[in-house]
Amino acid sequence: MREGVAKAINGVSFDLSERETLAILGESGSGKSVTAQAVMGILDTPPGYVTGGEVRYCGVDLLRLPEKQRQKVRGAEIAMIFQDALSALNPVFPVGWQIAEMFRKHRGANRSDAYAEAIKLMERVRIPAAKQRVRAYPHQFSGGMRQRIMIAMAIALNPAVLIADEPTTALDVTVQAQIMDLLKELQDESGMGLILITHDLGVVANVADRIAVMYSGRLVETAGVREVYAEPAHPYTKGLLESVPRLDGKGQELRAIGGLPPSLLAIPPGCAFNPRCRYATDICRVGAPPVLEEISNGRFSACHHTKEVLEWAAK
Ligand code: SF4
């Protein structure tokens, strides 16, 4: 950036298995979407550059592949759905044409076969009257239906990994639930791994197997979904959970996390969360940020005081 170099993600590492749903959680600006774009190889360059690291898929580091080969992986093996389907879809082409393009480009299908596949996919994601609506334009669909079209495009080639970047944020609550049910159903059918990027703790609780919490471009906690909800180990995760209204919390004040996430151009020394953390001590304000350490089987937290946080919570 003109003002300097912003490290949007730094030291982030995670894995994903077949059929698994990993939720990447964090506030806006924590680096969730940039992580997804870096994995997909669709960062806007400039200003974004991947300057190190690996993105391994089936043993191959995608960052080392020539762009032509990477394009073959993108969409066919690893696909992505975006938050705002209206801006992600091309407004001047019918939706069927856009879905069919996947088959023409990647599979060399002819026009009529590709359209037939598009109709099948529209039916699979439950768009009513798919045959009649295959030539309709994105603006002629509701928000929920447009998101279904995005999902149809993403699953067209049966990808092994689907990255869903805030797929329900722009939708109302009932449609959100329908879209999440649909994603889960498609995952059960195909066995794909799902990376769900969200700031919505409700969505995560219902569908994720594991959670990775990001703050200021770093992972601060990773664990199974039940462990995180029952006993968050990192003060930031704890703060996120405490700021959600509870049905059994009538009369209780919500405990918001004070302050704002730091600018990526001015990350505080030590732990980036220290100005907002109620557990912070002197050690948190100096030196390098704490690294992720295993606190129990498969559970990691990046905090100097994880043990104390868990002990205080248990009291
Ligand atoms: Fe809070 Fe310190 Fe832990 Fe950071 S390292 S989360 S500031 S207690």
Provide structural commentary:
A hairpin with a 2-residue loop joins strand 2 and strand 3 (60-61). The protein has helices at residues 32-40, 67-73, 85-88, 95-107, 111-124, 130-133, 143-155, 173-190, 201-207, 225-230, 235-242, 306-314, and strands spanning 21-25, 56-57, 60-61, 78-81, 161-165, 193-198, 210-215, 218-224, 293-296, 299-301. It is of the alpha/beta class and 315 residues long. The protein contains twelve helices and ten strands. The model has no long low-confidence stretch (mean pLDDT 91). An eight-stranded mixed beta sheet has the order 4-5-6-1-7-8-10-9, with helices on both faces. It has a two-stranded antiparallel ribbon with strand order 2-3. It starts with 20 loop residues before the first strand and ends with a helix. Helices cover 36% and strands 14% of the residues. The chain folds into two domains: 1-71 and 160-245 and 255-315, 3-Layer(aba) Sandwich (Rossmann fold), CATH 3.40.50.300; 89-158, no CATH class. Iron/sulfur cluster is lined by residues 235, 271, 273-274, 277, 279-280, 284, 290, 303-305.
How would you describe this structure in keywords?
315 residues, 2 domains, two-stranded antiparallel sheet, 12 helices, 36% helix, binds iron/sulfur cluster
